[in-house]
Amino acid sequence: MSEMTRLISAAVAGGVLTFLALFFLPFGRKLLGHDRGRKYVEGSEVNIGKPTGVGIYFTLIFVLAVCAFTTAGTGLYAIMVLTFLMSFIGFLDDRSRSPWGEYSKGALDVIVAIIGSIVFFKFFGNEVYLSFIDKSYILNPVLFIILATILTVVSINATNATDGVDGLSGTLTVLTVLTLMVSANLHGLLTLTNALPGVVLIAVILVYLIFNHYPSKMLMGDAGSRSIGFFIAFYFMYLKLPLAYLIVCLPFLIDGGLSILKITIGRLTHKKIIILPNIITPVHDHIKKKLGFPVPKTWAVICLAALIIDALYLLAVVILV
User: Fold this and answer.
1) How far apart, in whole angstroms, are the C-alpha atoms of residue 146 and residue 143?
2) Distance CA 158, CA 101 (A)
3) Tens digit of each residue's pLDDT (9 = 90 or more) over 125-152
4) Residue of 239, 245, 242 whose CA lies nearest to 124
5) What's the DSSP call for residue 34?
6) 258 Cα distance to chain centroid
7) Residue 279 CA to its chain's centroid (Å)
């Protein structure tokens, strides 16, 4: 089977199986949690009772499709297992009667991120390219593992915090992965083999968006957002462009990341220092509450901003690389 055939087959299999799983939700009543709404989140009451945690379905299918068709070897298998582990951890939180504490989830994030960073270094090395320079650098192994761990933890939490508007997190994921792949191709780093996981994720998420566009029928929950965040961090490193995360994922960092930063600083200083006191975070809640935008318009504003950022980034790569 040629690499192109493998890529197409994996994407089709992932998309079809995701559609069937989300359409029928096998064992859904016993398996899934139901949204409880979120305190202080504008408009979250409309989601109360919707099936949540469906990310466990599409993450499992994504992982299986990649593992079934890839020729990348043991390293990618290991990362895929960790991607599902992150989904499973989020799934347990989605199903629990009361939300897990932030410290517990944070500790698990760090543990999985450290394991993932060490696994990545062992199998894929520590070579990185700067976003706008067609030259690679070999980082010190310890420094690489520390930075990879930080990137992974940030990505997990920023993606998770962004998942509060119908279709938003899924759409930003598709734009992010697509932009990263185009950038890697411009750098001469994209191959059919390393493109396969990204293409499969895009296929799976596009199918999920059929059920999650406004008004959503179901929610990915932590089972989806946390596994997506983990994989996105890995994929930037896998395509050797981890620094590009800071630009391509600006929508995630601004919308969800500011929320994490604001909460963290507030807790560390016992609320003596509150950054951006007049901004509700995640930013999509500020747009809904302060600006009065309905959900579809909020989605459109953030996604349009992401499109502009991605287009400007790719234009800069074309000019400078």
Assistant:
1) 5
2) 17
3) 999 998 777 789 999 999 999 999 999 9
4) 239
5) E
6) 16
7) 24
